[in-house]
Amino acid sequence: MLDSKAESEPRKLHQVFLSILCIVIDIYMTRNISISAYKKYVQSRLKAVKPVFAKAAVGDFSTNIKLPSITDEFTELYTGIQIMLEVIRNQIQKLNQEIENKQTLTQKLLASNALIDTEKVYDEALMDSIGDGVIVTDAAGVITFFNPQAELLLGWKAQDAVGKHFFQVTRMSDASGQPIAHQKRPFRKAMNTQKKISGVFYYLNKDGTRFPVLVTAAPVIFGDYTKEIDLDRMKDEFISMAAHQLRAPLGTMRWSLELLLKKNLPLDPTSRDRLQNVYRNNLQMITLVKDLLDVSRISAGVIPNEPQLLDISPIIASEVKDLSGVASGKKVTLRYKPPPTSLPQVKIDPRHIREIIQNLITNAIKFNIPKGQVLVSAFQANSHVHLSISDTGIGIPKNERNKIFTKFFSAANSRLLQPEGSGLGLFIVKSYVDIAKGRIWVVSPDPQTKKGTCFHIELPSALAKEPNQPIAETARPTERRGQLT
Amino acid sequence: MKKVLVIEDDVNLQEVYQEFLATEKLSVFIASTGQLGMQMARSEQPHLIILDIMLPGAINGLEVLKKLKEESDLKQIPVLVLTNLSSHKDTAIEMGAVDYFVKANLSTQDLSTKIHRWLKKRPRK
């Protein structure tokens, strides 16, 4: 359309120009009486404009008129024609420019339309194919988008869900099946705080089936978490089964090796060393199996817990005594600094407190330097019992301090020293401290010795009015602290 | 010589028990199933019974323990449960076992101490 318009404009101008020219010539000629005499004169004078007109007739206005040397009435006419030619040329140029601009604009518009279409298709495909349920609402909570996965999970058709309020379509409960109040739901929290809120909850399908979901409300995105929870349970069950299966042969090996070592067989020193080595490895594997089983029980929430009121000082003393052989083997001095006054009793399972102390002292010895020291101390701190195990060892890198209590974690520098460590010890320690409603944190390097690591544990004593209450934050060092919860 | 009855199905472990208890100067009787164990307990009247929990056959270790405690001739015999399972301790103690240990977590030295302690405590003919 633009092209035909562009062509018609110069053509019109050309027709107008020719009409004007004819009128002018007509007038001019009628005024002359001596037509024949003047005819020759006119023909000779019009010669100059003939090629211009010939070209103009085919739409070419680029040729200029060659002005003759004589000045007469034609001169004025030629000048007028020349000016008209220039005006026409300018107009054509302007029109061409305009056409060009419009064409560029059209091309751009077409391109961006194509892009919008592609993005729309892409977004829709993405939302449709995503494994998570995606629901988008407007500010009032009315559903504006509902993807196929959300349909599948919630049992609603998108066409039915869109237009309804979010809470009408998604019903949420906690692990015990109790419905979650609207104001406590991630959706409402995200709306109120304008922040992304995440958490594991339970959604109810349209038919009432409850299933776990990992919810992120920003708009709301949730994924079926059943598989992950099942996998986690299967993993724990597998670990438990594998560990039990490993225990039997490891136990038989242990006793067999102990009997062999006790026999004082006539072995050369190398063979004896090898036998000792096999025995050490056997004990290490037994510990690993025990740790794996403890972890699977902790994860399953079935760890035995029989708390008793205990004075932990004699337990610490006995553990220190038991581990003194291991310490001297590593040329490390292990010392227990008993409390100046007797400790108030602590309510904890004796197996748990032994495990905590054993584990932390063993680590302090393992990750120490030759001629290093391990100092264990215990004292009363208000209504709590404070236990600390400090060493002069390799320390814990700053960036790894907050991960040391997680399952299967070993700090980079500890892996170099003890590559066979399972990374379960501190997880178990922390779990037992949690069960006793205590707190554990780590300071590295120890500010007292300027090296190594110091683990601090605070356990609520029988004196504590409310042992459930966490102790005041200010009661603990605040710098270079590990995990506190 | 005091008699110890071991109710254990693992053949390798049976050999270890045999050797270990012999070095402890004890007379050893070994049963591979719960039923055989009951028969041997009746016939041998041991001073101590070492009992595993996971046993092949009709009755497992806990059922053996129950039966032992039901028979007047046998209920005085101290029963030491040595198993690979750590989850039945409470049940076993409640049912009358004197001690309960996970085999792999116990050294032969500690086992020796425990055995002699129970043998001294419960002297039998």
UniProtKB/TrEMBL annotation, chain B:
Matching Pfam families: Response_reg
Keyword Disulfide bond: no
Record has Phosphoprotein as a keyword: yes
GO annotation, biological process: phosphorelay signal transduction system
Swiss-Prot/TrEMBL keywords: Phosphoprotein
PTM sites of type 4-aspartylphosphate: 52
The Response regulatory domain, residue ranges: 3-118
Classification via InterPro entries: Bact_response_regulator (IPR050595), CheY-like_superfamily (IPR011006), Sig_transdc_resp-reg_receiver (IPR001789)
PROSITE patterns linked to this entry: RESPONSE_REGULATORY
Family annotation (SMART domains): REC
First and last residue of the signal peptide: none
Protein name: Response regulator
Provenance organism: Candidatus Gottesmanbacteria bacterium GW2011_GWB1_43_11
